[in-house]
C-alpha cells in the first residue's frame, strides 16, 4: 500500500535512514561477493552465485557445487554452537538439514539445501493467503517438525551417541522450543511440503524463572530472537516465579496458521505501519478477530483459537494439535 510522507515528517526520516542503511548493506554485500567468488568447506568448493537475504547476524547466499545448488548461511556473531547442535540433534523430513559447516576467520559457514520456491512468507507476499485445505496441510507438516523438538528423546536419538550427551540429557523426554516459528522460517519444498528452518533461537523448552533478574534476561532473549507478531504473550512480560515451556511454540503455530489462511498474523494490522506497542498489548490480552471477507470454516478457527489461549496451560500439546489438524483435514468437525 502506498504511503504519503510530508517533508520533514518522522515517517520520511525513518524511510530515508532505512534506504541509506539498505544501500550500505547492499554495497558491503557486493564487495564481499566480488572478493570471494568461492568458498571451501571441509574439502568441498562452493561457487558463490548471488546474495539471497540477511538476518540480524547473518547473510545468506546461493552457492553451487557442480550441478547442485545450496544455500550458504554466514553467521557473524558467536553462539553458533547451539544452532549447529540443533540441526544435528533433530530428525524430521519437516526440519531443514545441515549438509556442511565450518568456521573461517571467525565467520560460521553453514550449507543447507536450496529451496527455489522460497518460504511461506514469500508465497503470502505474492499470492496472499493459502486456501483452507492448503493451510491445514502445510500446518500439519510444520507441527510434525515441531513435534521432533517438543518430544525430543536423547536416549532414542540416532544423531547423538550416548557418550556425547550432557548429564541432564539422560532422561526420556527433553523438550526444546524453536521460539521463532513464523511463515518466514518455513521453506516450501519442491513437493509442496513445509520445512522448518532457522534454529538460532532454539533452546531447552522448560526454563524456570525464579526472580525479576532472570525474568528480564528471558524477556530480552525473546525480544532479540522471537518475532513480535508471532511471540507468545508470556514472553512480552516475563513473570517471576514461573516456568516458560514449549507452549510458546503452540502460540506461534496458531499465529502461523492464521497467517497462512488470512495473509498476516492475527495481531498485525496490514493497514498500519508502526504497531509494535499495539501488537504486544493485543497479544497479552488475547484480542484478535477474523477478517469478514474470507470463507474459512469454524473448524480452522477452532484450531487457531485453541492455540491462542493467553494461559499457556490451556493450549494443546503438539500431539493434540496434530490430532486436531488431521481430524480437520479428514473432514471432521
TrEMBL record:
Domain of life according to the entry: Eukaryota
Domain Protein kinase span(s) in chain numbering: 46-330
UniProt entry tagged with the keyword ATP-binding: yes
Gene Ontology, cellular component aspect: Golgi apparatus; vacuole
EC number: 2.7.11.1
SMART domains per the UniProt record, alphabetical: S_TKc (SM00220)
Biological processes annotated in GO: regulation of vacuole fusion, non-autophagic; vacuolar protein processing
Coiled-coil annotated residue ranges, if any: none
The entry's keywords: ATP-binding, Kinase, Nucleotide-binding, Serine/threonine-protein kinase, Transferase
EC category name: transferase
Kinase recorded as keyword: yes
GO molecular function, one term: ATP binding
InterPro entries cross-referenced by the UniProt entry: Kinase-like_dom_sf, Prot_kinase_dom, Ser/Thr-specific_kinases, Ser/Thr_kinase_AS
Reaction(s) the record says it catalyses: L-threonyl-[protein] + ATP = O-phospho-L-threonyl-[protein] + ADP + H(+); L-seryl-[protein] + ATP = O-phospho-L-seryl-[protein] + ADP + H(+)
Protein name from the UniProt record: non-specific serine/threonine protein kinase
Organism: Wallemia hederae
Amino acid at each position: 500500500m502506498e504511503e504519503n510522507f510530508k517533508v520533514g515528517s518522522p515517517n520520511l526520516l525513518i524511510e530515508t535512514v532505512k534506504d541509506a542503511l539498505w544501500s550500505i548493506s547492499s554495497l558491503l554485500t557486493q564487495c564481499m561477493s566480488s572478493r570471494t567468488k568461492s568458498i571451501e568447506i571441509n574439502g568441498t568448493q562452493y561457487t558463490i552465485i548471488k546474495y539471497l537475504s540477511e538476518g540480524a547476524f547473518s547473510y545468506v547466499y546461493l552457492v553451487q557445487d557442480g550441478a547442485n545448488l545450496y544455500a550458504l548461511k554466514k553467521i557473524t556473531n558467536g553462539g553458533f554452537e547451539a544452532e549447529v547442535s540443533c540441526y544435528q540433534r533433530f530428525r524430521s523430513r519437516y526440519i531443514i538439514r545441515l549438509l556442511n559447516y565450518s568456521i573461517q576467520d571467525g565467520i560460521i559457514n553453514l550449507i543447507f539445501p536450496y529451496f527455489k520456491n522460497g518460504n511461506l512468507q514469500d508465497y503470502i507476499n505474492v499470492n496472499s493467503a493459502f486456501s483452507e485445505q492448503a493451510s491445514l496441510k502445510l500446518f500439519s507438516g510444520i507441527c510434525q517438525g515441531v513435534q521432533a523438538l517438543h518430544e525430543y528423546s536423547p536416549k532414542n536419538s540416532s544423531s547423538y551417541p550416548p557418550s556425547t550427551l550432557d548429564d541432564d540429557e539422560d532422561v526420556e523426554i527433553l523438550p526444546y522450543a524453536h521460539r521463532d516459528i513464523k511463515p518466514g522460517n518455513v521453506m516450501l519444498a519442491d513437493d509442496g511440503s513445509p520445512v522448518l528452518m532457522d534454529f538460532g533461537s532454539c533452546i531447552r523448552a522448560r526454563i524456570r524463572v525464579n526472580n525479576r533478574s532472570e525474568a528480564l534476561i528471558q524477556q530480552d532473549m525473546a525480544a532479540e530472537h522471537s518475532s513480535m507478531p508471532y511471540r507468545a504473550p508470556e514472553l512480552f512480560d516475563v513473570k517471576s516465579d514461573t516456568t516458560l515451556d514449549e507452549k510458546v511454540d503452540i502460540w506461534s503455530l496458531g499465529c502461523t496458521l492464521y497467517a497462512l489462511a488470512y495473509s498476516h498474523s492475527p495481531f498485525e494490522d496490514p493497514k498500519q505501519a508502526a504497531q509494535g506497542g499495539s501488537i504486544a498489548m493485543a497479544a497479552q490480552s488475547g484480542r484478535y478477530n477474523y477478517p469478514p471477507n474470507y470463507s474459512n470454516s469454524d473448524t480452522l478457527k477452532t484450531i487457531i483459537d485453541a492455540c491462542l489461549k493467553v494461559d499457556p496451560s490451556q493450549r494443546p500439546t503438539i500431539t493434540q494439535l496434530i490430532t486436531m489438524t488431521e481430524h480437520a483435514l479428514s473432514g471432521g468437525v
